[in-house]
Amino acid sequence: MKHLRLMDENEGDDPILSVVNLIDVFLVIIAALLLAVAQSPANPFSAEQVTVIKNPGKENMEIIVKDGQKIEHYQASDEIGEGQGAKAGVAYKLKDGSMVYVPEPGATSAPP
Question: How far is the CA of 71 from the CAs of 19, 67, 78, 110, in angstroms?
Fold first, then answer.
């Protein structure tokens, strides 16, 4: 019986066991924090519609748009006003603050 008691005492003094217990405690804390962050209203990906702008106004600006399950990613290019289209007309601002649109000759529809 005395021999068994010595084995129990050695097992209780083993520093590796206390390290393993500490790791278990930290894993539980990390899991709880992850759950709290995932359910937080500050989490941008929990909402149905989200727009995230990275580096606004810089050359490497990125826009990420999430609409339901669809995620679109846009990156800024070095070109200003890049795109396809044709001039549809000219808009003028009057003294009273109202806007007047004058379509180009041959334009088939008004701008949106």
Answer: 43, 6, 23, 31
In the chain the beta strands, taken as DSSP E runs, fall at 49-54, 62-67, 70-75, 89-93, 99-103
Cα–Cα distance measured from residue 109 to residue 90, given in angstroms and rounded to the nearest whole number: 13
CA angle 83–87–92, rounded 5-degree value = 120
Give yes or no for a contact between 64 and 71, defined as CB atoms under 8 angstroms apart: yes
> Which pTM value belongs to this model?
0.34
**What is the H or E stretch that residue 20 is in?**
helix 15-38
Q: How far is CA 38 from CA 25, 60, 69, 70, 87, in A?
A: 20, 28, 17, 19, 47
Mean pLDDT, range 28-39, rounded to an integer: 89
